[in-house]
Amino acid sequence: MATELASTYADLTLLIGGRWLGSEGRKTSPVINPATEEVIGQLPHASRADLDAALTATQRGFRTWRAIFPDERGRILKRAAELLRERKEEIARLATTESGKVIHETRVEVMMSANIFEWYAEEGRRAYGRVLPQRAPGTRMTIVKEPVGPVAAFAPWNFPLGNPARKIGAALGAGCSVILKPAEETPASGLAVAKCLLDAGLPPDVLSIVYGVPAEISSHLLASPVIRAISFTGSIPVGKHLMKLAADGMKRTTMELGGHAPVVVFDDVDLDQVLDLSATAKYRNAGQVCVSPTRYYVHERIYRPFVEGFGKRAQSWPVGNGLEEKNKMGPLVHARRLAAIEAFIEDAKQHGAKLEAGGRRLTSPGYFYAPTVLADVPNSARIMNEEPFGPVAVINPFSSFDRVIEQANRLPYGLAAFAFTSSSKTVKLLGEQLEAGMVGINTYQISIPESPFGGVKESGHGSEEGIEGLEACLVTKFISEA
Questions:
Q1: How many CB atoms lie within 10 A of CB 165?
Q2: Short-list 442, 356, 352, 440, CA closest to 392
Q3: So what's the pLDDT on residue 8?
Q4: Which residues are catalytic?
Q5: What rounded mean pLDDT belongs to the chain?
Q6: SS3 for 295?
Q7: Residue 64: CB atoms within 10 Å
Q8: Which fold has domain 2-257+459-481?
Q9: Which are the contacts of 344, defined by CB distance < 8 A and separation ≥ 6?
Q10: Per-domain residue ranges for the chain?
């Protein structure tokens, strides 16, 4: 299987001004299948000349794309959505091969990406302005929405299809051109999304895809006056660095940064149902999800049954190569994640945490780590304060509502929060008091194309998806006529 994948993996290129540019004369870096540790491709890095060419192309592309009426832009986005659906199996296998996540999840991600394009195809037609009441005869005052300009977008590896679709879809729906830098770990997925757009009729200069050393790419693009907005998904330190670079040019920023999602479980729930939902959500993409539930606060009356039930589910969770249909969790994306998770677990144990399940590497080759459950973890442990980004559930008991809200809101993060209860009064209080940009109550489903996706506090600002995602790519102009 590994040899077959190596021979069929897509040729990796840059995409600049409609041209697919290979590795000739360029630095390259290896792309590794995390399930086999096999090198499956060589990724070309954009040179400074390539980046300048992308900037020139995106400037041309912006003039072209903004002049196309929204209904025609929408037609192209809808056709791209159709192509994604038609190519679902091929693209899903590609994403699984390079990211490690199981094929069931990448199939869903292809459909999610198609739905995002379809949403922005329609919402781009609704960038409404308004007319103000007259103050004098023969005058008119109008407010219009216009595309902000070329967008530089930076997408991580954990959703190699969905993250590019969010960023590209919003920009194109608003009438902006885009230079996208997907993650170097998962390059073919971003290129597959771009190919669907070009095959759907997107003018070639409107979208460029570049790869390379992230700091070099970002500093070069953000220094250019061509770029007028930045969309970034990734870590808090990198997000803060990009904001500093953006400040020099007063560029608009949308930042979807780290999280450390709390889950509050009250004693009036259906325990098995919540456990089934929680294990599925926790081990999705091996916990490498920015909204992954991590800190479980469980009412003391059901604490031990919850811990034991979670541990049993973790121990029986099918882990292996994501291309095999039987598996529900694949590997971590690279060896660095393995070392990071091991350090978190060891530190927690040294602080007195009890290892209920997992806590070890699995078979090699591949960056596999066992689904893990930790109980009775003190706040002094690193994993209670830093995002683990791995398949680890951390469980602690609580006895009072006020105390658990204090613990849930304790950290500087505020991306997602979850809670489970059958009390309608408690539901209302949770919605009011949990500090997060997205709150799921009796559900882990907090992302659809129509809803804003973003956080508060150090988890960032601005939103992707929904009308808010389109608004991030628009500027407001007031026109007064006499």
A1: 30
A2: 356
A3: 56
A4: 256, 290
A5: 96
A6: strand
A7: 13
A8: Aldehyde Dehydrogenase; Chain A, domain 1 (3.40.605)
A9: 382, 383, 386, 388, 390, 392
A10: 2-257+459-481, 261-448
CA gap 100, 329 in Å, rounded: 9
Cα–Cα distances (Å) from 178 to 3, 208, 358, in that order, read: 35, 6, 43
Yes or no: say if 316 and 414 are a contact pair by the CB < 8 Å rule: no
Q: Model-level pTM greater than 0.85?
A: yes
d(CA 244, CA 118): 34
Distance CA 190, CA 238 (A): 21
The token duo for 106 is 């990448």
Give the count of beta carbons closer than 10 Å to the beta carbon of residue 86: 12
Burial class from Cβ neighbours inside 10 Å (0-12, 13-18, 19+) for residue 2 reads middle
List phi, psi (to 5°) of 423: -90, 120
Torsion region of 254: left, alpha or beta (phi above 0 gives left; psi -120 to 50 gives alpha): beta
Q: Are strands 261-265 and 293-299 parallel, antiparallel or unpaired?
A: parallel
Looking at the DSSP assignment, which residues form a beta bridge with residue 28? 44
Whether 224 and 55 have beta carbons less than 8 Å apart is answered as yes
Choose among 141, 112, 281, 117: nearest CA to 194: 117
- Residue range 5-32: average pLDDT? 87
Angle at Cα 393 formed by Cα 255 and Cα 163, nearest 5°? 30
pLDDT over 80 at 183, yes or no: yes
d(CA 95, CA 109): 9
CA–CA gap between residue 54 and residue 197 (Å, rounded): 17
Nearest CA to 431 out of 408, 413, 398 is that of 408
| pLDDT tens readout for residues 126-156 | 999 999 999 999 999 999 999 999 999 999 9
How far apart (Å, rounded) are the C-alpha atoms in residues 391 and 386?
Answer: 14
pLDDT beyond 50 at 326:
yes
What mean pLDDT is predicted for residues 9-21? 92
pLDDT tens-digit profile of 415-473?
A: 999 999 999 999 999 999 999 999 999 999 999 999 999 999 999 999 999 999 999 99
Condensed to tens digits (0 to 9), the pLDDT of residues 63-120 reads: 999 999 999 999 999 999 999 999 999 999 999 999 999 999 999 999 999 999 999 9
- In the DSSP assignment, the letter for residue 453 is B
Options 3.40.309.10, 3.90.580.10, 3.40.190.10, 3.90.70.10; CATH of 261-448: 3.40.309.10
C-alpha span between 189 and 106 (Å, rounded): 10
